[in-house]
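In the current project phase, the collection of sequences with tokenised folds has grown. A representative record is quoted in full directly below:
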Amino acid sequence: MSLLPPRASTDRITGITVCTRPFRAQGPRLEVEQVLGKTVVHNYGHGGSGWSLS
């Protein structure tokens, strides 16, 4: 059994998605609050280090 090479072509690109890494100049927001009886944790604004720091 052999595999066929992929049909790579720019004609097959249907869209491009670019993700941003939000950064806050005053530093990341890490707060907890109660909203309508639910706990909401704010943990954002880490920039490019977000995955590591959150």
The mean pLDDT is 84. The CA atoms of residues 18 and 38 lie 32 Å apart.
